[in-house]
Amino acid sequence: MLSNVLSSYIEHYHEPQSCQCRQCGCDLVKIGEDTTEQLDMEPARFFVHRHIRAQYACKTCEIITAEPVPPAVIDGGMAAPGLLAWVMTSKYLNPLPLYRLEQIAAREEVRLSRSTLAEWVGRVGVALQPLVDRLTWHLLQGSTLHADETPVAQLDPGNGKTRKAYLWAYRSNDLEPGPRIIIFDYQAGRSGRAYTKLPARLARSSAGG
Predict the structure, then answer these.
(1) Rounded distance, CA 47 to CA 78, Å?
(2) How far is 57 from 86, CA to CA, in rounded Å?
(3) Most exposed: 55, 125, 147, 190, by fewest CB within 10 Å?
(4) Domain boundaries, the chain
């Protein structure tokens, strides 16, 4: 049953219109249930968190007291953690370009420009850097480092064209103890120099952490 796999489900109870026998008119007795299941989903839904912080004043001291603004991934920004997670997951796991996310939001009458989305991606990357450094430290503890590169199209500013760049993936060895780790690194080429840049940079970041 699907409900044995998914922890979230909604039950709909359906009772007959009449609890009397259609033939003799006697009262019916419940003898069991017949259950069928359908898999459903809810599309991405935009909503607003409104934080209301009450302000209190001391008339004697003329001091105003209020709860501080809760910490956020982007200070002063309008994006809540759930929205940022949706942007990052859609872009890097699905993967959808930012203009597609802009179109998805527009269909829900939410205006999210590509420039705003791009800024969010960069700010989230900065916020996640300590996590990357920690994963890097664990990755360097292993005796084996697997590497592979994937070509990606990169815009060439000023020429109106694209050129080939590479996204390198460095992976831990499943046969060694510890968590499974994959770290991605962008490079303009796939030469041996590009291959050796990341381990050296990872070592510097680990030493600094």
Answers:
(1) 12
(2) 40
(3) 55
(4) 9-114, 142-195
